[in-house]
Amino acid sequence: MTETVSSATSAAQGSGAGLTIERIFSTEGVHPYDEINWERRDVVQKNWKTGETVFEQLGVEFPDFWSINASTIVTTKYFRGAVGADNREASLKTLINRVVDTYTEAGIKHGYFRTAVDAQTFSDELTYLLVNQYFSFNSPVWFNVGTSAPQQVSACFILSVDDSMDSILNWYREEGFIFKGGSGAGLNLSRIRSSKELLKSGGTASGPVSFMRGADASAGTIKSGGATRRAAKMVVLDVDHPDILEFVETKMREEDKIRALRDAGFDMDLGGKDITSVQYQNANNSVRVSDEFMRAVEEGKEFGLKARSTGEVIETVDARDLFRKISEAAWACADPGLQYDDTINDWHTNPETGRITASNPCSEYMSLDNSSCNLASLNLLKFLKDDETFDAVRFAQAVELIITAMDISICFADFPTESIGKTTVDYRQLGIGYANLGALLMAMGLGYDSEGGRSMAATITSLMTGQSYKRSAELAAIVGPYNGFARNAEAHKRVMRKHQAANDAVRTLHIADAIVHKAATQAWADVQELGAANGFRNAQASVLAPTGTIGFMMDCDTTGIEPDFSLVKFKKLVGGGSMQIVNQTIPRALKKLGYDEEKVEAIVEYIGEHGHVIDAPGLKTEHYEIFDTAMGARSLKPMGHVRMMAVCQPFLSGAISKTVNLPESATVEEIEDVYMESWKLGLKATAIYRDNCKVGQPLADGGGKAKKDAKDAADAAAAADAPKVETVTVYAPTRKRMPKSRVSRTTSFTVGGAEGYMTSGAHDDGSLGEIFLKLGKQGSTLAGVMDAFSIAVSIGLQYGVPLENFTSKFTNLAFEPSGFTDDEEIRMAKSLMDYVFRRLALDYLPYEKRAGLGIFSADERQRYLETGSYDAITTHGTSAAELIAAPAVISDATAPEPLAGAEPVAEATAAPVETTARTTAELLEIISGTAVDSPLCFTCGTKMRPAGSCYVCEGCGSTSGCS
User: Fold this and answer.
1) Is 360 a catalytic residue?
2) What is the pLDDT of residues 303-320, one digit of tens each?
3) pTM for this structure?
4) For position 916, what pLDDT does the model report?
5) How many beta carbons lie within 10 A of that of residue 876, not counting itself?
6) What is the pLDDT of residue 151?
7) Local structure of 580: helix, strand or coil
8) Angle, in degrees to the nearest 10, between helices 319-333 and 244-263
9) Which of 174, 246, 249, 364 is catalytic?
10) Which has more pLDDT, 679 or 796?
11) What is the mean pLDDT of residues 223-246?
């Protein structure tokens, strides 16, 4: 690690005598710790899949209002020292003290405070905000600050690589050190010459994709910080690079390989023992597109691919065709995303130093090569007042204090390389952001995908960044502007004017956002005045990060800019166990909307049972949108996500970590629309994810099918190797007619509101032989088509076509009517055909054949969540089904005492929960009957949930990316 030069030299440039810190949150003469109640807890963490205890620390100290989940995550992730050793941290006080004391001492040393009283006030205010969950620094701060380890405070790094072997090997080395330190890195490979160009020796170059293999293997080997998440990385390639098509299709081809290996019986689930044989799986890939390319796509023109060594066009491609291939690859495997180069660099404050060519792994930090950014995020719900309006004044004051602390950290921080340290000290990039936006909007009675919701989000984001740059200009007067400011002064001021103009363009819709907008307008006016006089201390100020682990530390309901994940969640209890609760913001939102206590109670009870608000008793349909979520029955449309990002982007120095989720039925054209609209709306980057597009997910058990297909393949191979026989035998099918009297069953069903009846008849051996479907009125076209279809299927069955063949062909067909059914075994159906053949499979196919088709009964699905296997087991004479059916009722003795002043509604919404689900994602699957497409946690084995463009585990706080 490289220790940086302190900013004492920069301090000499300033003319001020230090900041005067105003006491806003804390009470003079009273330590913030003395204003809250503390309690001792036992933190025991188990792998919920195996039951193995993976962590245990008894008697840790936390505030009584911190959730069990928050204290578990902080204890396991951030407490330093070996468990059981005398120097092991055992109290949140110790953790916060070592961080705050380090920041305060550095602030004193480098001239940030006017007096010792101001330094003490800074310490008290920072401690208050942290212990009361108003904000959190990013994870590396909690890992490293105040310990004997290098004082790495940055979570995000951007590297660079040139067209030389020395530079490429140095790239591998630098990434390894960054991963070891618990962070992620991104870089652009476009300087590396393509495989269509010659080396100086006359040979053909390997191209950047070939060098990605080595870096991918390194990332897969090194765990971040020796912790529980794998390394996070981003690889970017310019759209005019001659190897762009190979880059685009790289991960899609590997996904095909995963399917082939899975079907051959290999373990290809995420984290499976055979998945490591597949390449390019440890990085997010993004194509850096230009306005020129996007216009060529719009106009259907040719686009030139340029040699890296000479800059000349060596190949032309159809822009629409290339754009289509990018979208097809994203449809198939979620990669690549797009980064919009001209938009990014149009908002660049330091163009005289160099262009922005890449981002960090989650795409929120975009700045100079060989640079880093430390992050902090505010909990927006903490600033919601009793009258359900946003406290713009206190929010602005908190932002000022946090930005000050973040800038101080650069004075003492260590960095993995000398070049990164120099760039960061010279440009002092910061990344303040927020979490809990989705919960805030819901509590205010605003829909996430509504004009009111977007206006509120835009004004808050504008205020945050405006206040940050205002404080940055004030710091410049005291400790000097960043070293690269003079060179980039005009460009930096131009970007400040662009932010101000975007703020002026916001049209508020109600009193709440008008108040925030007024504060933001004043902040940007101050930015212009102070910046002209003092310059700025920081080249960048704000981003919107995933806030995965730290979001749980702050007990946030939603992460980053995300909407609420679902309306029901799991809550851990003191003493072990958990309960299902309806989101605590829902009663607050209903009261805001004018519903009385009786209606609120009825609506909350309905949501707790169904997981959504559709047909909730007494709830007005015009209020449904307020309770739309990322997953579930009323999930947000993809463009709803894009529009929210678009209104916030003009007020961010960096970008936004967020994935636009699309249903499995989404088309390539829809992905093209998302990418194109994102460019038109001014986003800096867009990533998409289509449900179930990746094979390596622990959602569907491929074991039965894999084994069956492997056996079929082996039989086919044996047959191919057998000696050729000249005799030709012609097989003709024979019809096995149904007996005159046969056993049949009639099933009534509803799919998406369409009612019907199915009668199925069986042979004497119990095998299915005929079906009759009754839909529509007699004599109608639909009834006639169903009659003809029933006859065709029945004849096929009697001529020996296996039911599983029909099932594999007709399940997953998607057309209207579709949606919810009244069948407890099949809660959702994509079409009538999808439902009918799933029902027939459950009625007539044995478990082994259904497993190969991925069709399981409700009991079997619950058994899998509980035991990791669909197979029936017995335990001391009790079947697994009986164990699963028995709910784990939480006794009153284990429930925590309600906090003083807390709303009683939240606890009233709690309900006993079955033991089959362990996280909110699993609970949502049980309630909705649909799968949540996310990986299992490497540490505790539970299903993670999306957080920005990463995933986060509710059980232990592990993330799949940077936070």
Assistant:
1) yes
2) 999 999 899 999 999 999
3) 0.76
4) 54
5) 5
6) 93
7) strand
8) 30
9) 364
10) 679
11) 76
By residue count, the chain amounts to: 963
DSSP state of 942: P
Contact partners, residue 248, CB within 8 Å, separation at least 6: 287, 322, 325, 326, 329, 336
Residue 521 corresponds to which tokens in the numbers above? 């307008």
d(CA 919, CA 226): 25
Cα distances from 859 to residues 345, 496, 635, 867, 885, in angstroms, run 54, 59, 26, 12, 9
Q: Tell me if residue 41 falls in helix, strand or coil.
A: strand
Residues 538/544/545/551 CA torsion (nearest 10 deg) = 110
| Maximum Cα–Cα distance across the chain | 102
Per-residue pLDDT for 878 more than 60? no
What's the average model confidence in pLDDT over 329-338? 94
488 is catalytic: no
Lowest mean pLDDT among 365-374, 413-422, 801-810, 900-909: 900-909
- Alpha helices (runs of H) in 132-195, residue ranges in sequence order: 139-144, 165-180
Q: Say if residue 4's pLDDT is above 50.
A: no
* Residue 800: strand, helix, or coil: coil
pLDDT band at 6 (very low <50, low <70, confident <90, very high): very low
How many CB atoms sit inside 10 A of residue 655's CB?
Answer: 27
Q: Examine the residue annotation and report whether 138 is marked as an active-site residue of this protein.
A: no
Decide: residue 927, CB within 10 A, 0-12 exposed, 13-18 middle, 19+ buried: buried
Q: In this predicted structure, what is the pLDDT of residue 14?
A: 53
* Identified catalytic residue from 360, 379, 483, 583: 360
pLDDT tens sequence across 734-773: 788 888 888 888 988 888 778 888 999 998 888 898 998 8
* Tokens (6 digits) for 154: 């940055």
Instruction: Check: CB of residue 428 under 8 Å from CB of residue 473.
Output: no
Residue 60: CB atoms within 10 A of its CB come to 21
How many CB atoms within 10 Å of residue 738?
17
Distances (CA, A) of 913 to 127, 178, 890: 37, 41, 8
Q: pLDDT confidence of 12, banded at 50, 70, 90?
A: very low
Tokens of 741: 């009297």
- In sequence order, the 6+-apart residues with CB closer than 8 A to the CB of 145 are 98, 99, 102, 103, 151, 153, 409
Find the mean pLDDT for residues 802-812: 85
**pLDDT at res. 155:** 86
How far apart CA 170 and CA 181 sit, in angstroms, is 17
CA distances to 45, 357, 860, 913, 914 from 917, rounded to whole Å, are 16, 43, 13, 8, 7
Instruction: Name the residue among 536, 588, 535 with its Cα closest to residue 564.
Output: 588
Task: Please list, in sequence order, all residues whose beta carbon lies within 8 angstroms of the beta carbon of residue 371, skipping any fewer than 6 positions away.
Answer: 157, 158, 420, 423, 424, 427, 429
Q: Contact 528/413 with Cβ under 8 angstroms?
A: no
Q: Which residue has the tokens 């009538």?
A: 832
Which SS3 state, helix, strand or coil, does residue 921 take?
helix
CA distances 956 to 38, 72, 347, 953, Å, are 22, 7, 37, 6
Return the residue matching tokens 């003493």: 575
Given 125, 246, 282, 362, which residue is catalytic?
362
CB 676 within 8 A of CB 326: no
3-state secondary structure at position 660: strand
Paired tokens of 435: 């979490």
Q: What is the pLDDT of residues 87-121, one digit of tens each?
A: 999 999 999 999 999 999 999 999 999 999 999 99
Going from N- to C-terminal start, the domains of the chain cover 703-855
